[in-house]
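quick one
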Amino acid sequence: MVTLSPPTWSPSSWRGYPAQHQVDWPEEEPADAARQRLHTFPPLVFAGEARQLQAALAEVAAGRAFLLQAGDCAESFHDFSAITIREKLKIMLQMSAVMIYGSTYPVVKVGRIAGQFAKARSAPFETIDGVELPSFRGHMVHDDAPTADARIPDPDRMIQAYHQAAATLNLLRAFTKGGFADLTRVHMWNQEFVASSPEGRRYERLASEIERALRFMAAIGIDLAEAQSLHQVDVWTSHEGLLLDYEEGLTRRDSTTGDWYDCSAHMLWIGERTRQLDGAHVEFFSGVHNPIGCKLGPTATPDEVVELAERLNPGRVPGRLTLISRMGSDRVRDVLPPLLSAVREAEQPVVWVCDPMHANVFKTVDGVKTRRFDVIVDEIEGFFAACRETGAWPGGVHLEFTGEAVTECLGGSDTVLEEALSTNYMTLCDPRLNARQSLDLAFHVAELMRGPWPETAS
Ligand code: PEP
Ligand code: CO
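structure w/ cobalt (II) ion:
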């Protein structure tokens, strides 16, 4: 077992480093009380589960599996129901069925769910209907209503976030282990509005082929009832580990290994805005033993990335570190290859993943934040091309989606037009792919995943 935590590290040692995008709680006493309560709460996930996910990610790092990481940009305290959780899970299961069937590789499924409540924002203020307000920073910090009062940070929201994460995780566990994710239900995950669309019909055909394969296996005497992997799936949780008060509050020492784990989620990632080498986030996540992600934008240099990998994964443990490339469709082909090569030369067994969402946001003339479906596909293609060129394994995709029929991203096979964006624009932060666009994207990704791959790719 590689020990990560250096002697100077503790769950609170980050407090001695510059911490970007933290909250100035208006009063110290309630903030302290909330921090103390988090320390006493039961962990949301267990260290052993984080280790299982790390082992699954090690398979991705070795070029034997893919990662599908997806969910909301920002989870909402308002939009919280069994239905929204179920719809997100359904689309995740559909996408992974498409990707597995298309590529014949296992797909590790990680939600941006059960904790994705805090946002780093480029600008501290935003203007809504002519009124300048503190930017919305996630429901863990304050409410999204466009008033000055609503935007006052409230530390009790960390407690509410914890409870919502617990309830979400509970339902996810029930759905994934209790029959809903059973592969024999592969047809039933197709929602009505998806089933009636071209990508939905394409999915129906794929689901029928999977059913036929299952019948074939039963016919030759394989006991399908006994095969647990047909009836249960693992869907792991993840979020950006932004608000370190919350993450520290849920950090526990594992009783079996003595190692520290951030028990707020199975996997945590460091955002593009908080990945400073000498910053608090890198310090905090260097000491917890969960699998860790780190976003890399177009300004990342090879030296910086190698140094980040060294800080976050000094033991070169496969599956420990996932580097999430978010370069922009116009930059990825130039900027990514030197990073892939440098990390390879440093013999870092990382997972490389493409986030085709965050560097492709733009505002329409009406000021609506959106992304184009074909630009998203283009960045993924550029990512696969960069990996192919350097012999790296394209480990997967990191997406923002929802199971609802929202109109937030432009395009897709059922083209969402600019004038239709306001029809059902619901996101609290960045525009998400709707269910149909997500399924459509899964077919594109499955094509790319099919290879062929050079012998050296891993
Ligand atoms: C996000 O994942 O929602 C996000 C803000 O990403 P990034 O840190 O890459 O900008
Ligand atoms: Co986002």
